[in-house]
Amino acid sequence: MLPERTGYIIWVKDMKAAKNLERFGTVHYMSRKLHYVVLYTNSDRAEEALKQLSKLSYVRKVERSFRNEIRTEYSKDIEDKTRYYSL
Which UniProt keywords apply (predicted)? Predict the structure, then answer.
């Protein structure tokens, strides 16, 4: 079974130093233009990683991702209105 994961968006000052973030979890994406990193860690050690990330000199801000809280199961209870708008 897959472990529960927590995502973090980490705003950094230096992208070269951001490569060191791999030791905290899985780096999913690095934006060189906007200077942020998307990092996933196991939920059981997420708080510990958050404290360590905040102490790093090249980290500006750490935000938690709410992706796992978004509903992804959809139902067809609502009628499809696209047929009213077609020609």
Answer: Cytoplasm
What are 13-71's pLDDT values in tens digits?
999 999 999 999 999 999 999 999 999 999 999 999 999 999 999 999 999 998 878 88
Instruction: Report helix, strand and coil shares of the chain as percent, to nearest 5.
Output: 35, 30, 35
On whether residue 72 sits in a domain, the answer given is: no
Q: How many domains does one find in the chain?
A: 1
E strand or H helix at 83, and its extent?
helix 82-85
Question: pTM here?
Answer: 0.77
| DSSP per position, 1-19 | -PPPEEEEEEEES-HHHHG
Contact 38, 9 (CB under 8 A): yes
